[in-house]
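Attaching the record inline, Q. Sequence:
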Amino acid sequence: MAGQRRRVAVILGAGASKDVAGRSPKVSPFDWTPPLAGELFSNPGNFRHVELILQKYPGAVTVRQLVMARTDGSSIQIEDELRRLSRNELYASAYKHVPPYLRDYLYAVSHSHVTSPGNLIQLVADLMDSDHEVAFVVLNYDTFLEQAIEGMQWNVKFDSIDAYMNTGLPIQVFKVHGSVNWAVLMDARVGDWAEAVEGYDLRLDNREIVIFGPHDTIQDVNEAFQWYYPVLTAPLAEKSGSDLVCPPMHTEALNDFLSGCRKYLVLGTSGLDNDLLAQLAAHAAEPEIVHYVCGDGSQDARDNFERAIPRFRSLEPTSRHDPNLRFGEYIGSVDFRNFLARSGPKPGQGE
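Structure, as predicted:
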């Protein structure tokens, strides 16, 4: 079936998660709105609930204080400061608490924001109904996309790392920065999580990534006193290929898909993830159509993509669309219908 479909790569950033609800009601009376990078330590709507999570990770409390004192709260400055702290031996132990804090926070968001990710359900359905083979390139840690696909009742379960590539459908999911439900076992067998993480080397090397959950807090679960650590890349400036934490087999499969893909849909990202841009620059085929759906930041995202990937330039008028639409507005628009209808070569044709 996949060989008869048109390839499309859908890049999902934080803005897509923030606008994921559609018409779905909220699960909780509290505000668990998905945060942008600049809100990971200081989201006013989530402050009281996030603070309870943060206090479980004293190193993350320290990093939060340094980040907020040394930046203006913008995503770019926060990512710059996190990168600096991650490279400084003085703060190495404190920084180890940041990914677990982010994991627990975004796990809560994934399960407490809405009853179902309405806009993603609509996106997935429209792509399947319009004869596409899809690679979802996910920059987020939440599991909204997994929930949307599993909720279709297509007999898909993301219960293993291999399941992300082998869904049995013309869909592959590449979580290049990791996920709240991915983890590795730390080597030490000790009495508590804090002791285990103190001696843990953050480099993944050849550690097996496993599906972790459902657990609210990663530090509360162990296997015979062998503790878990999340697999996710904190939002760091100047990301490189080494910041891609998905398994090498996933990266190879993504690169193979990109080599024959000529349709791209960029949803809710700034275009500042150098690791992803490098993969696209090295492996993406020359596109026939690219839509940037990032609200007020659409033009900046487009500029960043085209600066890094020369092949993405000069696509007017084939890529013309309203640059001010957000995710939820776009999937109900004529622009999206035109994108879906746009014919590109099928895999194996015109490549």
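Residues 2-24+116-177+241-341 form a domain with the Rossmann fold fold (CATH 3.40.50). Residues 98-112 form the longest helix (15 residues).

More tomorrow.
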